[in-house]
Amino acid sequence: MPVFDNDHTGQRIAAYRKKAGLTQRGLAARIPYSYSLVRQVEDGSRTASSGYIAAAAAVLCVDPAVLKGQPYVTELQQDQLMGLIRPIREALDLYDLGGDPDVTVRTPVQLIAAADELCRKVRATKLHAVASQLPDVITELTAAAYRSPSTSLWQALGSTYRTAHDVATKLGFPDLSTVALDRMGWAADRASDPLLGAARQYMRALTYFRSGECTVGFRLIDAGRRHLQQADPHQRDTLAVSGQLHLGAAVLHARADDADAVTTHLTEAENLARRTGEAGEVLWMSFGPTNVKLHRTSTLIEMRKFGEAVEQSQGLVFPTAWSASRVAHHHVHRSYALMETRRQEQALGELITARRIAPEQTRYYPPARETIRALVRQARRTPDTLDHLAAWISM
């Protein structure tokens, strides 16, 4: 028999709902989800999607991360990751203190290579290794950029800030990710790099997507496009960043349930992807035909068209050098869609695949954790593999 715990997103939503003086029907009347789903999410028989969490958080005046239970302190301590967050936070706070004369720095070539290596590792979901190395690289690059300012050093520093954002997001520290993105914009201005500035606005838009603030997200996408007006419109890198902005707009419009706008932006992104090919090396953004296909699936899930999402994502082949982070996310999202279409065994298989590809990321990814919990609650008898996954997330 499955063992139910009392620490899941639905239970936390119920607690904040009661604190706000709302009944389940009262909450349902204020969000675009049914009373039946509200009841099922709170009793743990249905998983809370990111859209549902964002909508509930807005009504209940609480951060979505609180409803998700982030950060997952027990697991972070077990994985020896909790102690690595403070040094990252401190390194991000050095940005306006100038070049520290007591810091020994490597050559610009070595530092730029170190920044690129951190980007590669975070895409490979080696979170512990990245979090361990990141503070020293940020500290050195900050000192080096002040001592001998150059476009390449400011760009590399902006890259490490972006990596800090990725780590903070994956480990469940939204406040830290916001600080990292502010620093990324600061470095992009000093590098006079419109592409880096546009990429930063895209990432900011995604933070508002997670919190359900689509209107602000749309404004940030537009701000990203204004950055691109300063770049060569025919350059492949410009096309790739433009395409990624269209993908960001597509998922925001899917959250807003605007199917026509979703189609428009996906079509624009697809046209750009034909021109760029797989452009994963452009600011480490994974843009290209494969990412367009993944976002098509994501938008279908956001609009709760789960059967279409399963069909769209079937048999997808990833390029050899593609980001493990994005591949694992795909398997988690497909797992959720399969669960919603009552194909629990296949859903479990997708989660096992995600864990194999990116164990650190999957353990801290809220949709993965919520899907595991929902599968346990739906099962009359939990298979050993599902029991192991449940124990893995401390359920």
UniProtKB/TrEMBL annotation:
SMART domains: HTH_XRE. InterPro entries: Cro/C1-type_HTH (IPR001387), Lambda_DNA-bd_dom_sf (IPR010982). It comes from the Bacteria. PROSITE patterns: HTH_CROC1. Residues 13-67 form the HTH cro/C1-type domain. CDD domains: HTH_XRE. SUPFAM superfamilies: lambda repressor-like DNA-binding domains. This is Helix-turn-helix domain-containing protein.
